[in-house]
Amino acid sequence: MSQIALIAKREILTRVRTKAYIITTALLVVAAGAVAIFGNVVLGQGFSAVEKTIGVTQDVSTYEDLFAVDSEELNVTVVEVTNPTEALEEGDVDVVFSGSELRWKSEADKSLPLELHIANSVQVDTVTKQATSLGLTPDDLASLATPVVLEESFTDGEESGQIAVRLAVATIASIATFVLLQMWGSFVLMGVIEEKASRVIEVLLSQVRPATLLSGKLLGLGVLALAQMVILAAGLGGALYFIEDIEIPSGVWGLIAILVPIFILGFAFYSAAFAAAGSLVSRQEDAQGVQLPVMLPLLLSYMLAVTSVTDPEFIAVKIGSFLPFSSPVVLPLRIAMQKIALWEVCLSLCILIAAIFVVIKLAAQIYEGSLLRLGKKVGWVQAWRDRKLT
Amino acid sequence: MLVVMSGLQVQGLCKTYGSLQAVDQLNVSVSPGQITGFLGPNGAGKSTTMRAILGVVSIDEGTVSWNGSTVDDTFRSSIGYMPQERGLYPRMKVLEQVIYFARLAGLDAATATSKAKFWLEKVGLEDRLDDMTQDLSGGNQQRVQLAVALVHDPVLLVLDEPFAGLDPIASSVMKEILLERARAGVAVLFSSHQLSVVSDLCDQVVIVAKGSVVSEGSASQLRLASPTRRLEIRWREAYGDTWSLEDANVVSSERNHFIADVRADVAIESIMTQAARHGEITEFQFEPPTLESVFAELVEG
What we know:
- The complex is a heterodimer.
- By secondary structure, chain A is mainly α.
- Chain A has 2 domains: 2-44 and 162-385, no CATH class; 50-145, 3-Layer(aba) Sandwich (D-Maltodextrin-Binding Protein, domain 2), CATH 3.40.190.10.
- Chain A is built from 15 helices and 5 strands.
- Chain A has helices at residues 3-16, 19-45, 60-67, 84-90, 112-133, 138-145, 162-197, 200-205, 210-241, 252-278, 287-307, 315-320, 327-336, 342-370, 380-385; strands at 50-56, 69-70, 74-80, 95-97, 102-103.
- In chain A, strand 2 (69-70) and strand 3 (74-80) form a beta hairpin.
- The longest helix of chain A has 36 residues, at 162-197.
- Chain A is elongated and about 105 Å long.
- Chain A starts with a helix and ends in a 5-residue tail after the last helix.
- Chain B is an alpha/beta fold.
- Chain B has helices spanning 46-54, 73-76, 94-104, 109-122, 138-150, 168-183, 195-201, 219-224, 268-278, 291-300, and strands spanning 8-17, 20-30, 35-39, 61-66, 69-70, 79-82, 156-160, 187-191, 204-209, 212-217, 228-238, 249-253, 257-263, 279-287.
- In chain B, the strands form 3 sheets. Chain B has a 6-stranded mixed β-sheet, with helices on both faces.
- In chain B, strand 7, helix 6 and strand 8 (187-191) form a beta-alpha-beta unit.
- Chain A binds chain B through residues 1, 3, 6-7, 10, 14, 194-195, 198-209, 372, 374, 388-390, and chain B through 17-18, 51, 54-58, 73, 76-77, 79, 81-83, 85-92, 100-101, 103-105, 145, 148.
């Protein structure tokens, strides 16, 4: 077995046995399942009728004619109540109507669609009565009062409801990419620091080249990170697969497919930088400070992505989808929202791949130069200047 | 005539850190089966030289070769190394750890396992194989470290202060193992501040100061090479006052007991004659200085 494989294997075996890995992976499986079920329920139910019950104290049949409705949006039944307060408390009815007053259980329980429905119905009733007294026939009135129904269509060919799927997928993809990059970046950083803190690094370097050590470490941790990303992508894909009421908008399946490759590239970019950061210090306590310059661009990209999910044509998002430090998080957003051309995706990935080569080369030099500097923290600038000194 | 030396050859080694010249034109050689002790004050360049042999630090100038060919990454898997800063993975089981390093040095899984068990038993840790390394005492972790250095059957051992921090029992285990390895034909280079250990164990002693070798040879050669001798005389019954001697650096002078450092080339017979006039001599010693004194003389002078 080659040294890289041995090192990767050790990283995997050591990490897989830890509680942290078992717990985070289990949580991911649960989260993926929850997304699948919840997404399906929410998106599936959003378009079935809201069921409501109106309580009245008298003239049930009159009010039934007035209020009862069974449409696609609203399903209202009318029942007689003797004790309005009790009926509301018990939850038998959603509202009690007493001719001029609506009584709710609490303001939080108020239903706007129901309130509008009742107000409308009363209004229609009043208009009808007055119109009759003015000599209009019910047919005249019906033709006057017919509500206007406007059809909607979208020039981009989307159906209503599809934007919700896009938003959900864009948000989940960006968050998942950020969380996993950040978490596994920290694991890389901690692993590098541990080797310096325990001084095992010099024994290792007597048998292994620094570049080999770095490659093995990133390979091992990368495989584990990838496993988690695959679980997540599968969960997301599964959730979409089970949605029946809405046709999955174009581009979303493509995103699910490209999410894992984008993550691999993002991991390569960021983990090398995290490793270089880790090599600058010899104590776990110094980890926080030293990872800031690496963590910050990742965090900013994430904030840009989640705050602009509804505004994918924002200029910062467009720029961010091409910069290598932000594209792994921002690109999924633009793909999900379909506000991107294929050539833009290709260009962005090419920039990222080119940047990976540069970052790995620079990071490896800083890593090599700083590994044996034990004790005091080494500054980034100094590490770069002294990279050939050891 | 070109002679290809067998064993380790370090020639003209130079290494600077910024403005600090850590090693300056240093030469040292270790033959198979030979134990070489590396002596020198802190900061003399011993650790840097050892790191350079392992390729852990790059060399500015000079060569490191084994049996005449330059030491490269392939050969380094035949070196056993114990750095001054001891280091093991704290959260790894003892046996697993030793197997891991054996495999990094190129052993296959089965050989690595049997060798790891063999050496852990040899250093007395056969009961601790499945313990976490961090749960072992400092001394026992040192034993694991030694097993890591030996597990891949290296032909060259480079040990940076292997005796530091060892209790007398662990220390004698270490001595035994070094002697046994040397008998098996391994070239051993180790540094130490414990001069008694060095004079007991070493076939060759190399003293370095300020990055260069100031003296080398066997312990007795080094002592004999000293320009001074320790003179000690006792008399049964001395006459008159204390005895005195010209050109002597007197250490202690009583009426019937005299100690002084004198030049190595003094006329001993004339001193004896003079001393005999002082009384009946019961003891007359004219010996090279101890290794400690030689060391102090070379390093401070």
